[in-house]
Specification:
This protein is mainly α. It has one domain: Orthogonal Bundle (434 Repressor (Amino-terminal Domain)), CATH 1.10.260.40. It contains 5 helices and no strands. The chain is globular. The protein starts with a helix and ends with a helix. Keywords: DNA-binding. This is Transcriptional regulator. GO terms for molecular function: DNA binding. InterPro entries: Cro/C1-type_HTH, Lambda_DNA-bd_dom_sf.
Amino acid sequence: MKNLRMKAARAGKDWSQEDLAKKVDVSRQTISAIEKGNYNPSVNLCIRICQALDKTLDDLFWPEE
């Protein structure tokens, strides 16, 4: 499942995938794979992404009803 909420939050900060990747210490390809739904990040990575984007786990990773 694509993570469009993460992509939107990243775009809202005017960050590239590379910018977010550097902030959370992963590769740009990892961010791309998460956004495309091809990779399920660890809980620790989810937390780092949420902290960087000023969002909660529910905002970015909890399934929508």
